[in-house]
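REQUEST FORM: STRUCTURE PREDICTION
Request ID: SP-0412
Submitted by: Lab K.M.
Chain count: 1
Length (residues): 180
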Amino acid sequence: MARKVILYISMSLDGYVATKDDDLSFLETVQTEGEDYGYAAFTSTVDTYIIGRKTYDVVTRLLDDKFPQADQFDCYVITRQDIPNQKNITFYNGDVEALLQTLKSQSGRNIYCDGGPQIVKLLLDKNLIDELILSIIPVLLGDGKKLFENGIPYQHLHHQETKTFPSGLVQVSYTTQSNQ
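STATUS: Completed
RESULT:
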């Protein structure tokens, strides 16, 4: 079975992944003891993690210079800069399409993309995302960093599943044309 690139991410109902100043506290509105919204099951199907450098910087700033994903996955931080690699973290500034073709040709589990918006746009522009799993948080932020930036190419998606949770979170799953 071929490896897939899966965008697994949360956003507000109005489509934002963070406020303009990278505040993610709106995610806490759905935190419920004992509920991980399928995260553990999802992460058991992946072994590689892709993230943009700006999102990486936000995560490490919020977690006191820690990047817990590196303890669980082979991580690729997509950047335009030359940054030395760290344990389980490759700072990649080459052709993303070539990277994903290489990763997908290797044996392993699926590839988890966690944003941010510039990486999502880049991957959508090149038709490199096979599935999207979006957790919609029941808040309206009104402004911030949109998950889907303007100018992404038209793509018809195929609905796979919708799950609802008592917290109000709705999780929708789609496959792309590239995965048909």
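NOTES: The first strand starts at residue 5 and ends at 12.
Reviewed by: T.R.
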